[in-house]
Specification:
By secondary structure, this protein is mainly alpha-helical. It has one domain. The protein has eleven helices and no strands. The chain is globular, with a radius of gyration of 17 Å.
Length: 216
């Protein structure tokens, strides 16, 4: 019980590490939250800090989630605890304790890249089939590329991301997973969609930045 609690706490703390914020602050001297979508994730880092920092942020956010879930799967044989650890790392990214301790507010972390890390780790562990990670990526790619192909212009990335996240529980539940991982897929989807509330507001207002744009 104590080990499980420490694992959950550790997952939350690791998930809370704001890699995008740190990278842009160190290499550009900027607060990434003041630009673009005000998010600390990879896409906004691409806009503000450039391709290299965006890629590093993406890899860091995927990697921290993968690491936590793989460790949990290696040391624990209880699906509920592994699923709980996965959810904890996502909550850490979405509600970073570091920002709260410093500013008494959370950042706009959406846990999208970390969700990919969680799903990939669960596929590696054999807890979920590979389509759970691959099909949402396909949905995301189609949602991103179709507007470009049809209109010649990039559109906002958030609709494609939300469509991909909705696909996660659909594909997961179709594979009839254990109750723990089925519930995790639903909670993952709900968390990411809830963290997109400001994107939805900006989409309705017509102020959501397009891919490749940076509102300074």
């Amino acid at each position: 019980m104590v080990e499980g609690g420490l694992l959950l706490l550790g997952a939350y703390v690791v998930g809370s590490i704001p890699s995008g914020y740190v990278l842009v602050r160190v290499f550009r001297g900027l607060d990434v939250r003041e630009y673009g979508s005000h998010n600390v994730g990879a896409i906004n880092v691409f806009r503000v800090g450039g391709v290299k920092l965006g890629v590093l942020t993406l890899l860091a956010d995927i990697g921290k989630a993968m690491l936590v879930v793989l460790v949990a799967g290696a040391v624990m044989d209880q699906a509920w605890l592994v699923a709980g650890t996965a959810l904890a790392v996502l909550l850490g990214h979405a509600y970073s304790v570091w920002f709260y301790l410093k500013e008494r507010r959370f950042s706009e972390g959406k846990s999208v890249a970390s969700s990919l890390g969680v799903l990939t780790a669960l596929v590696v562990l054999g807890e979920l089939p590979w389509p759970v990670a691959v099909i949402p990526l396909g949905v995301w790619g189609a949602g991103l590329l179709l507007p470009k192909l049809l209109t010649g212009r990039w559109w906002c990335i958030s609709p494609a991301t939300m469509a991909a996240i909705v696909a996660v529980p659909v594909v997961t539940l179709a594979g009839r997973p254990s109750v723990a991982y089925g519930l995790l897929s639903l909670l993952l989807c709900a968390l990411v969609l809830a963290r997109h509330k400001n994107n939805i507001r900006r989409l309705r207002a017509g102020t959501e930045p397009r891919l490749g744009a940076c509102d300074r």
